[in-house]
Write a structure and sequence with these properties.
binds FE2/S2 (inorganic) cluster, 5 helices, alpha+beta, 122 residues
């Protein structure tokens, strides 16, 4: 029911953790299941390129896998490009998710969009 890529990112999640003194932090809750996601971004002040991105979640396996992929996808992009990364693109990169788990994939996208920047003027 889960693709090999989903299982890989669930079992070996990339970019788990926190960034100390992050440029921005975004936290969202999932209206459907109540799970929580927090994303940390380290951004180059001049280029606005995301140098590092980490996440922590109380979400399920699908949330872990999609956040792992989403954080991989936004690293190296500018913060403006990262805003364009949709949960659909993340799901496609993971070769799909079961329909009942699509709401889990929204957490990472929403958390990136919810980031408030502490040390940065955009
Ligand atoms: Fe809550 Fe998947 S069930 S994030």
């Amino acid at each position: 029911m889960y693709s090999e890529k989903v299982m890989d990112h669930f079992q070996n999640p990339r970019n788990v953790g926190e960034i100390e003194d992050a440029s921005g932090v975004g936290t969202v809750g999932n209206a459907k299941c109540g799970d929580i996601m927090r994303i940390y971004l380290d951004i180059d002040e001049d280029t606005k390129i995301i140098k590092d991105c980490k996440f922590k979640t109380f979400g399920c396996g699908a949330a872990i896998a999609t956040s792992s992929m989403a954080t991989d996808m936004v690293i190296g992009k500018t913060i403006y490009e990262a805003m364009e990364v949709t949960n659909k693109a993340v799901m496609e990169a993971l070769d799909g998710l079961p329909p009942a788990k699509i709401h889990c994939s929204v957490l990472a996208e929403e958390a990136v969009k919810a980031v408030s920047y502490t040390h940065l003027t955009l």
